[in-house]
Amino acid sequence: MVNLKQKTALITGGSKGIGLGVARSLMEQGMRVAITSRSLEAAQKAAESLADVGSGEILALQADVRNFQEQEQAVAAVMEKWGQLDLFVANAGLGHFASIEEMSHEQWHEVIDTNLTGVFYSIKAALAGLKASKGFFITISSLAGTNFFAGGAAYNASKFGLTGFSQAIMLDLRQHGIRVSTIMPGSVATYFNDHVPSEADHWKIQIEDIGKLVVDLMHMHPRTLPSKIEVRPSMPGGKSQI
């Protein structure tokens, strides 16, 4: 099993939801973790909640994945503080859901620029550091990346694109010793799309479940690469069937 103590991770969109759950799981393994958010205040508040977790360290950074320079600055901050980058989790994402008749140009671009172009900017910014460490790049896609639905034109397009992008760069980068995986969750108990998690979400995937999955990927022998992982609730509830 790979020892994760003192290894370093950068997680986009790490102030809440899946990103926060992954950060906690990595810190429990003794990893040094940087989390980004478009709001520095949100990142700092999340970092404070993780300060006493495990034996790892936490760093809060402001960065918008839609801005390549801010992605470069976030990676540079990690390298300056810890000198290495072993894992990048491209988690930041959002959704606007409306029929194509009602979808605005602004909503379309916000979804595509965040969920797809933001991941392109992330790997471009992280590439040198991941080459040096022979590290791991994990994207958080969605089962919406293979299952389309009405009102999902922008979100489906972004996640179908992200799934394909992740698999293509996996083939590009494994020759450098960089492993690329995409995790495709179904219903997760998060604040996504203005949802507020509650006891009614007990049937959903929990953020710590995705965190455990990332830890398991990191622990896997480098010779083996699960490149695309679908994960869904065992017993779906409500209207969701994925």
From TrEMBL:
The residue range of the signal peptide is none
Q: Which GO terms describe its biological process?
A: monocarboxylic acid metabolic process
* Domain Ketoreductase residue range list: 7-189
Q: Which residues cross the membrane?
A: none
Any one Pfam family match given in the protein's UniProt record, by short name: adh_short
NCBIfam families linked: PRK07326.1 (NF005594)
The family note in this entry says: Belongs to the short-chain dehydrogenases/reductases (SDR) family.
For this protein, the record's PANTHER family field holds: 3-OXOACYL-(ACYL-CARRIER-PROTEIN) REDUCTASE, 3-OXOACYL-[ACYL-CARRIER-PROTEIN] REDUCTASE FABG
The molecule here is called Short chain dehydrogenase
